[in-house]
Design a protein that fits this description.
- With 116 residues, the chain is α+β, with helices and mostly antiparallel strands.
- It has helices spanning 15-25, 91-98, 100-115, and strands spanning 33-39, 43-49, 54-61, 64-72.
- It is 30% helix and 27% strand.
- The protein has a 4-stranded antiparallel β-sheet, with helices on one face.
- The protein is globular, with a radius of gyration of 17 Å.
- The relative contact order is 0.17.
- This is GSKIP domain-containing protein.
- Residues 18-115 form the GSKIP domain.
- It comes from Phellinidium pouzarii.
Length: 116
């Protein structure tokens, strides 16, 4: 009686990068842009330009979405609430927490869709 060896669950080497890119592409209505950074089988990173003229560095891993750095440009319009110990299930939740202008645009976009 032989049994086959159990193999660990394998993750595509591009899974996190593709998921992060997809998630950010869905949020373009409320951000100034984004650039994908490094990726591995364990995580992916990106730099996101907020409407407040603040750049967030974010990371996606098996834990979720997390802010890893914040830098404000000259003339940034607001203080950003970004705690690197917090982990979010979605990039939408992360952006709502960190960016008041993202939240405003999100509400406006949802309202416009409901009215059309």
């Amino acid at each position: 009686m032989s049994s086959e060896p159990t193999s660990p669950i394998r993750t595509s080497s591009s899974f996190f990068k593709e998921e992060l890119a997809r998630a950010l592409a869905e949020q373009t209505f409320g951000i100034g842009g984004y650039t994908l950074g490094h990726s591995s089988v364990h995580e992916a990173s990106a730099s996101v330009q907020l409407l407040e003229r603040v750049r967030l560095d974010i990371n996606l891993s098996i834990r979720g979405f997390q802010v890893t750095g914040v830098s404000a440009h000259a003339g940034a319009s607001a203080a950003i609430a970004a705690d690197s110990s917090m982990v979010f299930e979605t990039v939408d939740a992360l952006l709502q927490h960190c960016s008041p202008l993202y939240s405003v645009r999100r509400t406006e976009t949802l309202f416009a869709k409901l009215m059309s």
